[in-house]
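Weekly modeling sync, notes
Attendees: S.R. (lead), two postdocs, one rotation student

Agenda item 3: backlog of single-chain predictions. S.R. asked that every request posted to the team notebook include the full sequence so nobody has to chase files. The rotation student volunteered to paste the first one in as an example of the format we agreed on. Action items at the bottom.

Example entry:
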Amino acid sequence: MLSPNIETFIGCDSGYDEARIILFGAPFDSTTSFRPGARFGSSAMRHESFGLETYSPYQNADLTDFPIFDSGDLELCFGSAEAALETIHARAAGILADGKFPLLLGGEHLISLGAITAAAERYPDLHILHFDAHADLRDDYLGARLSHACVMRRCHDLLGDGRIHQFCIRSGDREEFRFAAEHTHLHPFSFDGLQETVMQLRRSGVPVYLTIDLDCLDPSCFPGTGTPEAGGVNFHQLLEAIHCVCGADGASSVNLIGADLNELAPALDISGVSTATACKVLRELMLALELQHQAMQNIEKQGV
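Predicted structure, as returned to the notebook:
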């Protein structure tokens, strides 16, 4: 049983037992390869969320319509990626064991590995949907195999070929793109091919983990990130992609079992626009997940 966090994301102050979605933060950025600061992303999203409304005109839904629990940030060892990942893994595994949906807030992208490892242990046929500017498929970065530049390569070590589906990728070394051509499904520059991928995943019924690196967004609308890459998608395109994956009618959704949102570095955008954007993405993601779950429950009831 987890205790309520003192400062929660707006509208996410329900109790653990009644909630399905469980928010938890991983304030870790010790393997950041360019500009640090993502460790402050999860707390900044909570604090700045109160500049948002709980209601979404995009989905005609309100966070207060659903019980969501925010358990706050984990206490992580900044000097050890292994120890930090073990702590994240333990929290995600506990949430999954309770039949709930872990929603992890970063932090740098390496934090995803802890939650994905827990998900893969529970769901051996797991697939990953990966939105990012970077392939993250290096075998090591300056000799370190646990780096945010290597997180999808370590996920491939867990899952094997053909189970990582990457979108918006526009940066990586040549070897990463060669590796992707043989081992993952990489869709460069945009969300082209996402609808077809979602249809395939839905038909197969496999469990899916969604990881969103916010630097998939173009730095013109999201400069507050450690490694900005020109040429990304805009907010509306990311929102459409989230809706495509979640499928609010239930019948057109994939079997999502966990998700994360990462790589906001709030101090790198003193305007606050990046943090505000991250907050809105998180609000829309949570609502899309809850509307999907609600629709699937209605379908099940009709089938009884």
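Discussion: group reviewed the output briefly. The beta strands are 21-26, 55-56, 61-62, 68-73, 101-106, 127-131, 164-169, 185-188, 207-213, 255-262.
Action items: rotation student to repeat for the remaining queue; S.R. to check formatting next week.
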